[in-house]
């Protein structure tokens, strides 16, 4: 999986567990594609400190996933859904199953 996509998924699942400062810097860098210098300028700190904060946040998100595995479980559910979907006799069952998948 692409690094950017992986971190976006991790952020979707675990972003609320981050501090506001971590969320802001991570979001600006990974989701808004701002440079370290641009984030530093807005935050009134050095690019190096922004870099360190983002790397620590990435590690924290990876640690959350390692402990909880929510992204991996959602991916497993999606794969199973794709395998089961052609076997379902009617469209309504497929839609119900897809709604259940969205709970992940």
State the separation between the terminal residues, measured CA to CA.
19 Å
Mean pLDDT: 90
Poorly predicted segments: none
CATH topology of the largest domain: Arc Repressor Mutant, subunit A
SS field, number of helical segments? 6
Tell me what portion of residues adopts beta-strand conformation: under 5%
Count of distinct strands: 0
Number of domains: 2
Main beta sheet = none
Order of helices and strands: HHHHHH
CATH class of the largest domain: Mainly Alpha
Characterise the protein shown here.
With 104 residues, this protein is an all-alpha fold. The chain has two domains: 1-68, Arc Repressor Mutant, subunit A; 69-104. 78% of the residues lie in helices and 0% in strands. Helix 1 (3-14) packs antiparallel against helix 2, helix 2 (20-31) packs across helix 4 (47-68) and helix 3 packs across helix 4. It is elongated and about 60 Å long. The protein starts with a helix and ends with a helix. The mean pLDDT is 90.
Offer a quick outline of the entry:
Helix 1 runs antiparallel to helix 2. The chain contains six helices and no strands.
Write the layout of secondary structure elements.
Elements: H1 3-14, H2 20-31, H3 36-43, H4 47-68, H5 70-84, H6 91-102
Helix pairs in contact: 1-2, 1-4, 2-4, 3-4
What are its keywords?
Arc Repressor Mutant, subunit A, mainly alpha, 104 residues, 0% strand, single chain
């Amino acid at each position: 999986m692409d690094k950017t996509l992986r971190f976006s998924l991790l952020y979707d699942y675990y972003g609320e567990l981050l501090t506001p400062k971590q969320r802001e810097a991570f979001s600006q860098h990974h989701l808004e594609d701002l440079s370290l210098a641009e984030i530093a300028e807005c935050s009134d700190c050095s690019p190096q400190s922004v870099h360190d904060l983002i790397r620590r946040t990435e590690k924290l998100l990876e640690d959350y996933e390692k402990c909880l595995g929510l992204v991996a479980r959602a991916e497993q559910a999606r794969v199973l859904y794709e395998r089961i979907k052609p076997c379902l006799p009617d469209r309504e069952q497929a839609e119900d199953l897809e709604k259940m998948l969205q709970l992940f």
